[in-house]
C-alpha cells in the first residue's frame, strides 16, 4: 500500500514527544470501559482507544459533539450546514451506520438510516467520551464495523455540588446549562445527578449558491435537553438505579426560495433501569432494561402534506455476568433487542425487527502477555450471524508494547435498505467485515507514542445501484460492492512542564474495490496538532486541523478541496469555583467544504463563564 503523505512528514507529528521524553511529567492512569464492557486500565486494553475528558469538552465552548470528535485521530465528519443540520461521522473511513453509538450503555440511532443523530446530542450533558477503533461486533453485535463511540453523561459521588454556565458568541449563539450531583452516605446511600441545558443560534445559510435548495436566509437552531441518574445502594455490592437523557432540536434548513420556514424537529431520548450485583467476590452481574427513541418531524409547508413524522424505537434487555478467575476475566452475556419504525407518510417501513444475542469473552494477562478472545451470535430475521475476535499484546520492555488482532463484524440492513418504496430490497443481506490490525505503543516518563496499521475488508456492501436488478427504472439499495478500509494512524502525546502537546496523523485509503473509487467525503490524509500552556490560573491553547481533498460523490466527479483550520482558546480560573472561557474557531476565516454546496462557518468566537462548587 502506498500512502499519500511522506513518511518524513508523518514522523514530524511524533518528533516533539520523543525529544522531550527526558523532562516529561507522568501521564495519569486512565480507565476504559467500552473496549470489553467492563472497567480496565488503559495499559491492559489491546484495542486502539481514545478518551475525551471532561476538560476537553469544557474547552469546546458552544461546539457540537461532532466538532469535538473531529479533533481526534481516525475521525472525519460531513455536515449539511451548521451545527443543527444533518451530520455524518466517519470512523477509520467507515460510514456512520457502521459505527455503534452508546449513551451510558444504551444504544442510540435511527432504525431507518442506521446512524446516530449526532446533531441532536447535547454537548453540555457529556462528562467524557470513549472511542474504541476497529470491529467490535463480537462484543456489541450488529453495526460495530468501524468501532464504537460511548458517551458518558455527568454523574458524581460525594458531597452535593452545583455547577452552571452561560455564554454567547457568533451567529447569535447563546448557551445556558446547570447541574446538581452528589450522594448521601450510609448503608443505603443514594447517588444522584441532574442536568439541563438550552442552546440557540441564528446560524448561517445551510446552502450556498449552486444548490437547487439555496436560500440566502440564516438557518438557526434551538436545542433543549435534560438528563439525570439516580442509584440506590441496597446492600454492600448491590445497586439499583435509573438514568435518562432527553434532547429536542428545532433546526432550520433550506428548501428553495420558499416563504415558509422549513425546519426539522428532532427528538432523541434514552432511558434505562439497571441492577448491579456482586453475588460472590468473583462474580458480578449487571442487568439493564433500556429504551431509546429517535423522532424526526419535517415541516416544509403549511399544507397537511408538508408535515411528516418518522419515529424509531429500540428496546433492549441485557444480562451481563463477569467472573474473575485467578486474575483473568470471563464474561458471559445474553441480550434481546427490538427495533420498531412508525412513519406517518411511508407505511411500508412500519415494521418491527427482533434480535436475540449471546456472547462470551475471556481476557487474561500472564507476565508480559495479554490476550483477549470474544465471540457472539446474533439471530434475527436475516438468520444467525456469528462474529469473533482475538487480540494479543506483548510487552517487549516496560515501556514498549506491540499488539496484533483479528476480528469479524457485520452490519444489518437498515429499514430503508429493506423496505423503503422504490429503493429497498427485502433480499438484501448484512454487510460483512474482516479486520486485521497491528500496533506498537511506547510510553515512558509522560510520553505516549502510538502507531496502528489496519486493513478492514468489507463484502456485500450495500450501495445505490442504477438500474436496479429486477426494476428497469430508478436505483435501489443492493448488495454488490466490496470495500477496503486501510490505513495507518500515528499519535503522540506528552507534557513538558506546563506545556501539553498532542498530535496525530491518519494516512488512509478508504476505497470501493468494485469501482476503484475513493469512498465519498473521506480524505486519504488528515491530521491534527494541539498545544496547551498553563501559567498560574490561565490556560491557553491552540489547535490545528488539516484534511486532504475528498470527493462529494461515489463516482469521484465532484471534488472537495483540502483545508486547514486554526482554533484558539483561553481559560482563566478566576477563583476556585469560577472560570472564564474565550474560544475562537477557524481563526484564519478559512472557507472550506464538508459537503458540496453546503455552508460552513467562518471565523467564530464564543465567551462563557462557568461556576462549579467544590
TrEMBL record:
<keyword id="KW-0798">TonB box</keyword>
<keyword id="KW-1134">Transmembrane beta strand</keyword>
<feature type="signal peptide">
    <location>
        <begin position="1"/>
        <end position="24"/>
    </location>
</feature>
<dbReference type="InterPro" id="IPR000531">
    <property type="entry name" value="Beta-barrel_TonB"/>
</dbReference>
<feature type="compositionally biased region" description="Polar residues">
    <location>
        <begin position="203"/>
        <end position="215"/>
    </location>
</feature>
<dbReference type="InterPro" id="IPR039426">
    <property type="entry name" value="TonB-dep_rcpt-like"/>
</dbReference>
<keyword id="KW-0813">Transport</keyword>
<comment type="similarity">
    <text>Belongs to the TonB-dependent receptor family.</text>
</comment>
<dbReference type="GO" id="GO:0015889">
    <property type="term" value="P:cobalamin transport"/>
</dbReference>
<keyword id="KW-0406">Ion transport</keyword>
<feature type="domain" description="TonB-dependent receptor plug">
    <location>
        <begin position="43"/>
        <end position="148"/>
    </location>
</feature>
<keyword id="KW-0675">Receptor</keyword>
<dbReference type="GO" id="GO:0009279">
    <property type="term" value="C:cell outer membrane"/>
</dbReference>
<keyword id="KW-0998">Cell outer membrane</keyword>
<keyword id="KW-0732">Signal</keyword>
<dbReference type="InterPro" id="IPR010916">
    <property type="entry name" value="TonB_box_CS"/>
</dbReference>
<dbReference type="Pfam" id="PF07715">
    <property type="entry name" value="Plug"/>
</dbReference>
<feature type="short sequence motif" description="TonB box">
    <location>
        <begin position="30"/>
        <end position="36"/>
    </location>
</feature>
<dbReference type="InterPro" id="IPR036942">
    <property type="entry name" value="Beta-barrel_TonB_sf"/>
</dbReference>
<feature type="region of interest" description="Disordered">
    <location>
        <begin position="198"/>
        <end position="220"/>
    </location>
</feature>
<dbReference type="Pfam" id="PF00593">
    <property type="entry name" value="TonB_dep_Rec_b-barrel"/>
</dbReference>
<feature type="domain" description="TonB-dependent receptor-like beta-barrel">
    <location>
        <begin position="174"/>
        <end position="586"/>
    </location>
</feature>
<dbReference type="InterPro" id="IPR037066">
    <property type="entry name" value="Plug_dom_sf"/>
</dbReference>
<keyword id="KW-0812">Transmembrane</keyword>
<dbReference type="InterPro" id="IPR012910">
    <property type="entry name" value="Plug_dom"/>
</dbReference>
<keyword id="KW-0472">Membrane</keyword>
<dbReference type="GO" id="GO:0006811">
    <property type="term" value="P:monoatomic ion transport"/>
</dbReference>
<protein>
    <submittedName>
        <fullName>TonB-dependent receptor</fullName>
    </submittedName>
</protein>
Amino acid at each position: 500500500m502506498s500512502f499519500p503523505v511522506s513518511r518524513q512528514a508523518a514522523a514530524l507529528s511524533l518528533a516533539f514527544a520523543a525529544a522531550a521524553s527526558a523532562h516529561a511529567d507522568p501521564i495519569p492512569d486512565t480507565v476504559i470501559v467500552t473496549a470489553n464492557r467492563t472497567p480496565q486500565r488503559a495499559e491492559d486494553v489491546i484495542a486502539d482507544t481514545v478518551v475525551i475528558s471532561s476538560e476537553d469538552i469544557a474547552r469546546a465552548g458552544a461546539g457540537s459533539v461532532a466538532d469535538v470528535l473531529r479533533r481526534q485521530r481516525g475521525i472525519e465528519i460531513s455536515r449539511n450546514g451548521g451545527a443543527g443540520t444533518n451530520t455524518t461521522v466517519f470512523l477509520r473511513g467507515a460510514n456512520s451506520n457502521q459505527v455503534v453509538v452508546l449513551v451510558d450503555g444504551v444504544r442510540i440511532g435511527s432504525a431507518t438510516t442506521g446512524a446516530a443523530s449526532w446533531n441532536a446530542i447535547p454537548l453540555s450533558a457529556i462528562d467524557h467520551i470513549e472511542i474504541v477503533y476497529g470491529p467490535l461486533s463480537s462484543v456489541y453485535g450488529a453495526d460495530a464495523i468501524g468501532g464504537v463511540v460511548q458517551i458518558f453523561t455527568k454523574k458524581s459521588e460525594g458531597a452535593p455540588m452545583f455547577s452552571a454556565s452561560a455564554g454567547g458568541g457568533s451567529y447569535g449563539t447563546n448557551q445556558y446549562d446547570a447541574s446538581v450531583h452528589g450522594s448521601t452516605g450510609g448503608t443505603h446511600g443514594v447517588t444522584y445527578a441532574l442536568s439541563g441545558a438550552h442552546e440557540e443560534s441564528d446560524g448561517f445559510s445551510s446552502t450556498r449558491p449552486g444548490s437547487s435548495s439555496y436560500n440566502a436566509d440564516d438557518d438557526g437552531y434551538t436545542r433543549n435537553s435534560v438528563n439525570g441518574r439516580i442509584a440506590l445502594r441496597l446492600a454492600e455490592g448491590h445497586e439499583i438505579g435509573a438514568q435518562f437523557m432527553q434532547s429536542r432540536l428545532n433546526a432550520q434548513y433550506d428548501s428553495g426560495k420558499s416563504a415558509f420556514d422549513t425546519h426539522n424537529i428532532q427528538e432523541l431520548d434514552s432511558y434505562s433501569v439497571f441492577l448491579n450485583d456482586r453475588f460472590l467476590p468473583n462474580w458480578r452481574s449487571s442487568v439493564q432494561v433500556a429504551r431509546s427513541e429517535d423522532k424526526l418531524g419535517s415541516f416544509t409547508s403549511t399544507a397537511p402534506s408538508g408535515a411528516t413524522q418518522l419515529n424509531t424505537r429500540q428496546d433492549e434487555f441485557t444480562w451481563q455476568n463477569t467472573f474473575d478467575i485467578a486474575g483473568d476475566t470471563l464474561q458471559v452475556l445474553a441480550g434481546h433487542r427490538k427495533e420498531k419504525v412508525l412513519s406517518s407518510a411511508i407505511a411500508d417501513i412500519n415494521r418491527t425487527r427482533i434480535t436475540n444475542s449471546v456472547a462470551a469473552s475471556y481476557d487474561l494477562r500472564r507476565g508480559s502477555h495479554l490476550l483477549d478472545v470474544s465471540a457472539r451470535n446474533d439471530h434475527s430475521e436475516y438468520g444467525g450471524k456469528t462474529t469473533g475476535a482475538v487480540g494479543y499484546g506483548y510487552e517487549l520492555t516496560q515501556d514498549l508494547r506491540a499488539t496484533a488482532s483479528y476480528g469479524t463484524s457485520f452490519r444489518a440492513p437498515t429499514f430503508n435498505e429493506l423496505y423503503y418504496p422504490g429503493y429497498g430490497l427485502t433480499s438484501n443481506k448484512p454487510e460483512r467485515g474482516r479486520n486485521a490490525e497491528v500496533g506498537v505503543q511506547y510510553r515512558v516518563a509522560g510520553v505516549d507514542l502510538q502507531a496502528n496499521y489496519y486493513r478492514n475488508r468489507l463484502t456485500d456492501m450495500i450501495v445505490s445501484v442504477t438500474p436496479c436488478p429486477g426494476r428497469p427504472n430508478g436505483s435501489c439499495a443492493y448488495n454488490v460492492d466490496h470495500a477496503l478500509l486501510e490505513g495507518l494512524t500515528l499519535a503522540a502525546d506528552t507534557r513538558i512542564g506546563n506545556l501539553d502537546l498532542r498530535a496525530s496523523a491518519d494516512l488512509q485509503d478508504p476505497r470501493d474495490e468494485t469501482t476503484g473509487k475513493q469512498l465519498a467525503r473521506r480524505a486519504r490524509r488528515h491530521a491534527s496538532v494541539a498545544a496547551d500552556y498553563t501559567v498560574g490560573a490561565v490556560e491557553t491553547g491552540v489547535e490545528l486541523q488539516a484534511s486532504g481533498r475528498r470527493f462529494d460523490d461515489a463516482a469521484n466527479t465532484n471534488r472537495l478541496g483540502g483545508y486547514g483550520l486554526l482554533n484558539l482558546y483561553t481559560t482563566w480560573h478566576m477563583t476556585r469555583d469560577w472560570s472564564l472561557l474565550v474560544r475562537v474557531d477557524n481563526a484564519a476565516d478559512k472557507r472550506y467544504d464538508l459537503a458540496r454546496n453546503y455552508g460552513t462557518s467562518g471565523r467564530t468566537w464564543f465567551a462563557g463563564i462557568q461556576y462549579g462548587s467544590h
